[in-house]
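During the no-cost extension, the postdoctoral fellow (Dr. R.K.) reprocessed legacy sequence entries with the updated structure-token encoder. One reprocessed record is reproduced below for audit purposes.
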Amino acid sequence: MSDNLCPPLFGPAFDADPYPAYAWLRDNAPVTRVPLPGCQAWLVTRYEDAVVTLTHPSLAKDPAAGSPEWRAASLGLPLDHRPGLARHMLNADGADHSRLRRLVGSAFTPRRMAGLRERAQEVTDDLLDRLDGPEADLIAGLAYPLPITIICDLLGVPEADRPTFHHHASVIDSSAASEVAQIAEATDALEKFLAGLVALKRTHPGDDLLTDLVRRSAQGEIDEDELTSTAFLLLIAGHETTVALIGNGLLALLRHPRQAAELRSDPARLPGFIDEMLRYDGPVRNATWRFPTEPVVIGGQEMLPGEPILVSLLSANRDPSAFPDPDAFSPGRTGGPHLAFGRGPHYCVGAALAQIEAEAAIGSVLRRFPELSLAVDPADLTWWPSAIMRGMFSLPVRLYG
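Re-encoded structure tokens follow.
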């Protein structure tokens, strides 16, 4: 490729390995405009600029702050701006964001997290027991069902209703569909599902987060749209990132057998391995949209009010100015913190839970299958065509020999 020409930023080749393109951008156009369907957006690629963008007080998350072109392009998550699904903390600023985050954060108490750690291990063991034969797909068999089960437990989705949720979520997820009409249909159905679930919790409360939020709603701390939107955010975003974290983490270890052997010999290293996996090939490609509320300058570029901004977390986490030898997978490395869970007020509220699930899944796979290997060439793996997430459709492995 020419040194003067940026590699493509879209398409299967980029999805499979975006890092050469990000390296070019960091060197040649660290803050640049990129085309999107119906509009353009700023893309921030260097670590230092990413930190500034993620923490800047004049950058809003509320979609109402976006330009008319961006809002007309329907580029939200998941291609929808209806109040019953979009009024959650990811789209809120200031006092509203703090209030919603505090309500959700109350679910992640030490007692509940300890119970979720035990539950994650229990679900992982059950899923691995079901793997039949010398080969398996660790996305379908483990990385996808584990976080869905945990988030349904956390929210209190009844067992009988979980297949319905699984169906709708599989369509909305980046890993299952790209047709806008399909996603819209599934989103309609999921909105009705969540409204029914909220109604159920009002008459049949339980020991779960949704029951707690319904109780807070009755006290005037959260309104109806915010309630269903928060449930929607946790059900979709709360499991999709963990699917990708587990899958990407397993792939990293499959492609780095020396580090995998070190981890098997010393399981106490697992948290450090997870942390490096998050930096090396994290589950979130770009942090979700931000919009200037006044002119701001980042990386020497002026951004005007309403112009959409994406922060490339994958690129920032491979910036050599922040991480020496950034393309090496080096558990235990020293240096600054990665940005896989973001930075600032919108730092991922479920980060600790995602790490718990990843530790259960990755640690158990390595322990139970010492001969684990890829069943396909890495070049044959297919990746989600998502502007936000980075994950695989499947991860075929040989469990034995």
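The first helix runs from residue 12 to 16. The domain at 12-398 is CATH 1.10.630.10 (Cytochrome p450). The remaining legacy entries will be reprocessed before the final report is submitted.
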